Each structure stands twice: as structure tokens, then as C-alpha cells.
């Protein structure tokens, strides 16, 4: 799928720069042509010789290279590629991009291009979570820049959390999706998935049996059609798909915040099994058995994420798709839910124990829209996802 495609790979400073060497090899294995750009700080972590040897071409480092500048080489570099990839993308380089600075080759290339840009951020967790970084990310997303990662994990500094650069396979999948000629190329789609965990105390929580398999399958199918997918997932038992932006959350309130931060989007697919209720005041200590009997738990209603997005007056996605897991009167209950929430489509299924669907590998759904209720035969969850993704592509094209 990458045969003959030209990727301009910018390697900036950070310990994660070593992963970019493997990324070059993976891109070439898929037939891609890589032109490397190494920043001054990037050269502190990987050598120009190693990058050049893997890429099979010269490494570009200096803005004012007299050999190439006679033909405005830095402009040509930025416009001859099919995709600009920055891996790792540091907080400093993202700040330069967000504010239009161009005082070195990498930042100048990124400012002088109208070619799509994909960033793989890598930084300390505190830097990633800083408000300034979040402001810069919001600006870059508004400018049409795509992201892959970062992931949660341990870091060279000894801390743990978000900020670890995506793995080469994940970046490769994101590049492939970005360069695909699929019908969703250039579209940004938000997908929620998995259950939510609502704490009772530090060791107990309220949850449901959702595995997150159907939501993950939908995200993969949308990615394969070329969409930029933002995947907000609760603590699911299946791995998130590669090549999408993964945001991991625990509770319904965390999911609501992540969804709001991920907007705007062309479409939203709300496949998560969000808990309707939470304990109003979760204990900060483990609840103990008492002679006075069982503890009394007071419940509060969780935010209705689907309804909130579906009824937005500004910035609403063009298409909002909800899911309804029912155990009886599936069509009637799901039809009422669609009207109550205000979404465009509802994907309904029967998750009563006899069906074996909840947590299983198959699904049997009914698609409810303005056109009525359309029964789909029982099939694998991946096949359901591909069929739904194709319908979403057709709806957004119309």
C-alpha cells in the first residue's frame, strides 16, 4: 500500500529517536521511500550515519545548505513528499509549529508545506499534561495535523504515564491509513469503546461485561478506509487497534472529558457501554464489614455522553451513531433511545445471555435510522464493523 509513496521523516530530539530507525526499515519493507531530516537535538540520540545507512539516502540537517539552496531545496523537500512524519515530535517542535516559528530546517519544512502532517509525540508525562502543550495540540488539530500516540508507559526519566512515543508498528499503521485512497481519507472520526469503571472505594467499582471488541473493530474498519480515528476507550479486555489515536479512561466522567477534548470530528461512533450510574460519594478508604450491616450506597446519574454530543448546537459531528445493548424488545427500546438521545443512527443488539454476544466474537445488530429498522444477519464483529464503516463513508460523502 506504500509502494512508491514518499515519506519525509523528521527525527527530533528525545530518547525515543531510536524507534525511528526501526520505522525507516518498516516503511521500506512496505515499499515506501524515506527522506530523513535530523534536527540538531535529534543528532544527540541517533547519528546521521545510522539514519543515512538505513534510509539509503543523505540526511538533511541544515536549513542553509549551499548545495541545495540554489534551488530552494528546503521548499522542495517539504512539497515533494506525500506525507510529513515527525517521530519523535517533541514539545518544543510542536510549540514551534503551533506558533508558526521557523528557525531551523525541521520547523521551516513544517511551515512551508501544504502536505499532510502526522506527529508521533514523545515527552515527559508532566510536559505532555502541561496546559501549554494541550493548547498547542488544540491549535495543531485545528490546523489539520494528525497524531498517533502517545502511549502510557514507563519513561527514561523513571516516571510513568502518557508521553511515550507510539511503537513503529502503530506509526506505520497510521501512515498507511493516512496515505490510503479510501473513501474516508481526510475525515476525522471519534469512536468510544469498552466499559467504564465507577469507583465504590479504592479497590471496588461498578462495571459491566463489555469487552470493547466491537468498538475496537469499528475503529480498525474506519482506519482502513482512510479515516483519522480518535479512539476513547474504557478499561476493555481487548487491545486498542494500531494506527489510531488512543485515549484511555476509567470512568464515565473521564470519558465525557476526553470526548469533548477530541471534538470537532466529522462523525462520532459511540460504542462504549457507559455506566448509567455512579456512587455519589466514593470512599477514599476501603469499606469494611460492620456489625451494623451492609453499607448503604447512594447513586448519582452519570453524564449522558451520546445525548450531549447529539444535541450540540455548534460543532456537532455531521453523523452521530449510538449503540444500544438490549435484553428485550430490542427494536422498540432502541428506537425510543434514538429519539430520546437525538442521534442519527442507533446500532442495536440483543445481549441477553442466551445470545452469547456480550464478550463474544459475533454480533447480530439492527441499524435504526430515519429509514426504519434494518436487520443485519449474525456475523463476526469485524464484519459488522466493516459494514458499518462503509455506511458511514457513504453518509459522509452524501
Summary tags:
single chain; 398 residues; alpha/beta; Rossmann fold; 2 domains; 8-stranded mixed beta sheet; 5-stranded parallel beta sheet; 14 helices; 34% helix; globular
Helicity range of the residues? 25-40%
Mean of residue pLDDT?
Answer: 88
- Number of structural units classed as domains: 2
Helix-strand category? alpha/beta
First and last CA, distance = 27 Å
Report the strand count: 21
Question: What topology, given as strand order, has the largest sheet?
Answer: 12-11-8-13-16-17-19-20
Beta-strand content estimate: 15-25%
Tell me the name of the CATH homologous superfamily of the largest domain: CoaB-like
CATH architecture of the largest domain: 3-Layer(aba) Sandwich
GO molecular function, one term: metal ion binding
InterPro entries: CoaB-like_sf, CoaBC, DNA/pantothenate-metab_flavo_C, Flavin_trans-like, Flavoprotein
EC number: 4.1.1.36, 6.3.2.5
Region (Phosphopantothenate--cysteine ligase): 189-398
